[in-house]
Specification:
This protein is mainly alpha-helical and about 350 residues long. It folds into 2 domains: about 200 residues, no CATH class; about 110 residues, no CATH class. It is built from 11 helices and 2 strands. It has a two-stranded parallel sheet with strand order 1-2. It is rod-shaped and about 130 Å long.
Length: about 350
């Protein structure tokens, strides 16, 4: 073999190695894009699971009994509970969390399959999947942002229960209409109150301190009734552990002597507990954090998809321009370019097999 042929072979080997390095270098941004998108998808699915769990916890929370309790007394003022507006939104948030989990999971599988697929036309597949990822990310970003704004509005405009007005209305009803501690009485308002005492395990409106209490100014004590006759200081329905069936047998140390520990706690205190016990503030914070995470991650995912679409499109345009120029200068060079492109793709397939 002549010296000239050896030099030609060395030059051909050198160009081949350079071409391979160039292909591998060009592949680095694409592969990094795949890894970044798959990582984002993983975190997005975790955020979607958190959204599903937090919305489910709120939706199955014990119902708020505040309105039910106050309506049982036929009061004119019956406010809703603190987080009622948020609880009504949980069904939509639960559905959106499931949709996000399914979409991001399916797209992750597609990205992984295209990356591992032994084909020479991966770039076309990736270009299509990146466009789909971009569209899905934009749609879910907008929908999630709308839900986040709605949740924030619900938190800011949550019902601030006016306990002062509730106490005033309850005390007015008790002092004006309570005439007997007999549940089966024809007096409906008195019957409402006695049933309320037993059902919600409370007594009077404010805390009973002794024989002087909220019942002193009621018709039951001032006009007629066992209190007016000094047989009772508080209703028998106020005594602990009594029911609608046996309240008539309540011990004297409770309704007559009003000994501490024998009667129930105040009804205004019970009303306060009814208005806040159903949903914990930590659950609301987790719901808000899940939505915020989804919004930020989906915006970041859209940016990554745009960058990868631009990169792949520019790669196609650059190769087309180079091929056109070489064909104009050397008509036979086009075949060489095709051979080189085929060789580059072969390198990629060899690397994939090695992996």
């Amino acid at each position: 073999m002549s010296e000239e042929q050896k030099n030609d072979n060395k030059e051909a080997d050198r160009k081949k190695q350079e071409d391979k390095k160039t292909v591998q270098t060009d592949r680095i941004p694409k592969e990094n894009g795949h890894y970044v998108l798959l990582s984002i998808k993983g975190v997005l699915m975790i955020a979607a699971i958190a959204l599903i769990c937090s919305s489910n916890d709120i939706s199955v929370a014990n119902p708020c009994d505040l309105q039910t309790a106050l309506k049982s007394l036929h009061l004119s003022f019956t406010p809703s509970c603190k987080y009622d507006a948020i609880k009504k939104k949980t069904s939509d948030l639960h559905i959106q969390g499931l949709a996000a989990l399914c979409c991001h999971g399916i797209l992750s599988i597609f990205i992984l399959c295209i990356y591992l697929w032994p084909s020479e036309n991966k770039q076309i597949g990736f270009l299509i999947i990146y466009v789909v990822v971009l569209i899905v990310a934009v749609i879910f970003s907008v929908l999630t942002y709308i839900q986040k704004v709605g949740l924030d509005d619900a938190r800011r405009t949550k019902t601030n229960v006016d306990y002062v007005r509730i106490q005033r209305d309850m005390l007015f009803s008790l002092e004006k209409y309570f005439t007997t501690d007999n549940i089966s009485s024809s007096d409906e308002t008195s019957s409402y109150w006695n049933t309320f005492f037993i059902k919600y395990d409370c007594c009077a409106v404010r805390e009973v301190q002794g024989t002087t209490n909220d019942f002193d100014n009621t018709p039951w004590c001032t006009t007629s009734g066992s209190c007016q006759n000094t047989a009772s200081q508080i209703p028998k329905t106020c005594c602990k552990d009594v029911t609608q069936d046996d309240y008539q047998y309540a011990p004297d140390i409770c309704h007559a002597s009003v000994n501490p520990g024998t009667y129930r706690t105040s009804c205004i205190g019970r009303v306060k507990s009814l208005s806040v016990r159903n949903i914990d503030v930590c659950q609301v914070c987790m719901l808000s954090f899940s939505l915020l995470s989804l919004v930020i991650l989906q915006i970041f995912e859209a940016i990554v998809a745009i960058v990868m679409i631009i990169f792949i499109t520019w790669d196609f345009i650059r190769f087309k321009i180079q091929s056109t120029r070489k064909n104009k200068t050397d008509p036979g060079q086009g075949d060489c370019d095709k051979t080189m492109l085929h060789s580059n793709r072969s390198y990629e397939n060899e690397d994939n097999v090695a992996k």
